Amino acid sequence: MSIEWKGIFPAITTKFTAADELDLPLFEKNLEVQLSAGVDGIILGGSLGEASTLTTAEKEVLTKFTVEKVAGRIPVVLGIAEGATREAINQAALAKKWGAAGLMLLPPMRYRSDDRETAAWYKTVAASTDLSIIVYNNPVDYKIEVTLDVFEQLQELPNIQAVKESTRDVSNVTRMISRFGDRFKILCGLDTLALEEIVLGAHGWVGGLVAAFPAETVAVYRLAKAGRIKEALDIYRWFLPLLELDLSAKLVQYIKLAEAEVGLGSEHVRAPRLTLTGAEREKVLQVIRTSVANRPTLPDYLSL
Questions:
Q1: pLDDT higher than threshold 90 for residue 77
Q2: Whether the Cβ atoms of residue 212 and residue 228 lie closer than 8 Å to each other
Q3: Residue 227 and residue 109: Cα distance in Å, rounded?
Q4: Catalytic residue among 6, 164, 185, 256
Q5: Is 236 among the residues known to form the active site?
Q6: H-helix or E-strand containing 204?
Q7: CA angle in degrees (0–180, nearest 5) for 155-158-159
Q8: DSSP class of residue 89?
Q9: Catalytic residue among 15, 122, 136, 221, which?
Q10: pLDDT value at residue 2
C-alpha cells in the first residue's frame, strides 16, 4: 500500500495486561474506535508505544495483528529506533515481511551522529527497502537534528517521503516548504503545536492524545483543512490542557490514564515505567475529568 502521508496518524499505545503480556482485545477495541473516527494511518512502536521495551516477537504480533484488522483501509507504519545501522536494516526487512506499509525512522539511538553520519544512516536504511519512510525529527528528546542540509541529501531517495516535525519550532514548517516545496510531506509531531503547524501548511499530525480522543483530533485537522478555522480553534482550545500531557517525560503514563478514563485502554505500562500514584495521578486525573466533563459537541467533520 502506498502512503499519502496526510491526515491523522495516531502513534498508538501498546496495551498490556496486568501480567505484562500484550492485551490484543483491548488494543483492537482502541484500533476500531480510531478507524471509526476517521484516522488516516496507524503508527506502531513509537515512543508512546513503548517500543524500547518490546521484543521482536511482540512487534511481529502487533504488526501482523494490526495489518489483519485494518484490512487495507489505512496504512500501518512501524517505528524503527535502533543503535546500529545493520539492525535498523534488519528491522526494516522484518516490517516488510510482517505487512507494514511504511517506517517511522529515528536517527541512531545512543550515538549523537553529525550531519554526514545522519544522512548516511537514512540513505543506507532507505536504500535497503522499498517501504515508504517518514523521518522522525525530534532533536529535543533525541539530541540529533535532521537539518535542512541533511534533507537536501535525502531528496534523492524516493521512498523518504515525509517528516514527523518535532523540533518545537513552528517556523521549521515554513523553512521546509520554502526550500523543498511539496517534496516532503510534513506531519506535526507535537500535539500542542498541531493546529499552528496545520495552518502553516503541515499535511498531517502524528498524534498522542488521539489515542484517547480520536474524534476530536480528526475534527481539528479536517476543519482546519476545510478553512473552518474558528470551529477548529474552539475544539483546540478545549483540547489544549489534554494535549499538554504529551509534553511530559511520562507521556505514556499520562496518555494511558486518559485512555483508561474514556474506556479505550488501561493504565498498565511496562517496567521500568510505573503506573501513576498519589498526588501526581490525581492531578492528571483532574485535567482529564474536567476536560471530559466539558467535551464539545463536534460538527459533521467526517463529511469534510
A1: yes
A2: no
A3: 39
A4: 164
A5: no
A6: strand 204-207
A7: 115
A8: H
A9: 136
A10: 81
- Does the pLDDT value for residue 216 go beyond 70? yes
Q: Is 206 known to sit in a ligand binding site?
A: yes
The grid coordinates of residue 28 equal: 483492537
Nearest CA among 238, 234, 239, 225 for reference residue 197: 225
What is the pTM for the complete model shown?
A: 0.97
Residue at grid coordinates 499520562: 254
Q: For 233-261, how does the pLDDT look when each residue is reduced to its tens digit (9 = 90+)? A: 999 999 999 999 999 999 999 999 999 99
Q: Look up residue 157 and give its three cell numbers.
A: 531517495
Active site residue 122: no
For the beta carbon of residue 175, count every other beta carbon within 10 angstroms: 13
39 CB-near residues (< 8 Å, 6+ apart): 7, 8, 9, 10, 74, 210, 214, 217, 218
Query: Of all helices (H) and strands (E), which one includes residue 78?
Result: strand 76-80
Determine the length of the chain: 304
Q: Cα–Cα distance between 31 and 42 in angstroms, integer?
A: 9
Q: What does the block give as the cell for 213?
A: 480522543
Please provide the CATH number assigned to the domain covering 7-298: 3.20.20.70
